[in-house]
């Protein structure tokens, strides 16, 4: 399995941000984590990324134990934060080239263009500086960077927040393609409709605990909303 949490716990002072999380996510799965602000979604992502150390329990990526400041597990992971950080004065092609080189890949021009195209960015934008891009366009560049890194797992934090319905739909289609190509996607989201649409599994967190885990195909958006409101 690509992601595994075993009794994974994070405490800040006396407060438990994540409480004994047990979870396995397989290749090709799209796991959507729902929960109120402060429920522990970002903490979970940060623990898998090794941005923060677990207080107890384990996070494993591709079977390898995550420990902060070691690169072993990072190469299996790509991360798309809520706001994709890009160099405003560079074009999307230049940003993709730059971040790919940092990840250790030197792509030909045509390959870079292919990644941007796959991520759904319109070719007219390839040579425009990203400073003028919309949020949806930045998101697509973020996806291209993540895919070009060749990582098996893509972690996303609230990827559809602030996207319009069409951009959200386009994003969902890309995520489905990533899943079909065997990538594992793990996203924190507030978007119930999108979770049902794009997810294979859905988790609901409350105060650091994973309270429900369901198969997306077994639930409608309406029923998920009902369960969510009853849970939180
Ligand atoms: N660096 C930190 N120091 C202290 N407390 C923190 C820190 N990071 C997170 N927390 C606390 O841990 C809890 C979980 O936060 P987390 O960011 O994981 O929630 P979330 O589910 O991602 O929320 P949101 O939907 O707002 O992003 C919160 O109570 C938060 O205040």
CATH architecture field = 3-Layer(aba) Sandwich
Question: Which small molecules are bound?
Answer: adenosine-5'-triphosphate
CATH class: Alpha Beta
Biggest sheet statistics:
6 strands, mixed
**Mean model confidence by pLDDT:** 95
Number of helices: 7
Oligomerization status of the protein chains: single chain
Shape: globular
> H/E element string?
EEEHEEEHHHEHEHEEH
Strand content: 25-35%
Calculate Rg over CA atoms: 17 Å
Q: What would your notes on this structure say?
A:
With 232 residues, the chain is an alpha/beta fold. The protein has a single domain, classed as 3-Layer(aba) Sandwich (Rossmann fold). It is 34% helix and 27% strand. The chain has helices at 41-49, 92-102, 109-118, 135-148, 165-180, 192-198, 221-231; strands at 3-12, 15-25, 30-35, 56-61, 64-65, 77-80, 153-157, 184-188, 201-206, 209-215. The protein has a six-stranded mixed sheet, sandwiched between helices. Strands 2-1-4-5 form a four-stranded antiparallel sheet, with helices on one face. Helix 3 (109-118) packs across helix 4 (135-148). The mean pLDDT is 95. The site of adenosine-5'-triphosphate has 11 residues, from helix 1. Residues 12, 17, 35, 37-43, 188 line the site of adenosine-5'-triphosphate.
Gist of the model:
This protein has 232 residues and is an alpha/beta fold. It has helices spanning 41-49, 92-102, 109-118, 135-148, 165-180, 192-198, 221-231, and strands spanning 3-12, 15-25, 30-35, 56-61, 64-65, 77-80, 153-157, 184-188, 201-206, 209-215. The strands form 2 sheets. The chain has a 6-stranded mixed beta sheet with strand order 6-7-8-3-9-10, with helices on both faces.
């Amino acid at each position: 399995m690509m992601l595994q949490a075993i009794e994974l716990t994070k405490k800040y002072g006396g407060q438990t941000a994540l409480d004994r999380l047990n979870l396995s996510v397989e290749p090709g799965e799209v796991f959507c984590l729902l929960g109120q602000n402060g429920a522990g979604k970002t903490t979970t992502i940060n623990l898998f990324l090794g941005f923060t150390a677990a207080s107890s329990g384990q996070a494993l990526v591709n079977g390898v134990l995550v420990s902060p400041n070691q690169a072993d597990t990072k190469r299996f992971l790509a991360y798309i934060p809520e706001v994709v950080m890009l160099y405003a004065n560079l074009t999307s092609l230049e940003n993709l080239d730059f971040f790919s080189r940092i990840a250790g890949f030197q792509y030909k021009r045509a390959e870079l263009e292919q990644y941007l195209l796959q991520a759904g960015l319109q070719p007219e934008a390839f040579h425009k500086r990203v400073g003028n891009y919309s949020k949806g366009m930045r998101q697509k560049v973020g996806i291209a960077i993540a895919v070009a890194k060749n990582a098996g797992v893509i972690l996303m934090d609230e990827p559809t927040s602030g996207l319009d319905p069409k951009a959200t739909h386009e994003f969902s289609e890309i995520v489905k393609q990533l899943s079909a190509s065997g990538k594992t996607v793990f996203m924190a989201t507030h978007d119930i409709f999108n979770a049902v649409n794009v997810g294979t599994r859905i988790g609901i967190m409350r105060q650091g605990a994973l309270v429900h885990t369901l198969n997306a195909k077994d639930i409608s958006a309406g029923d998920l909303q009902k369960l969510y409101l009853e849970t939180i």
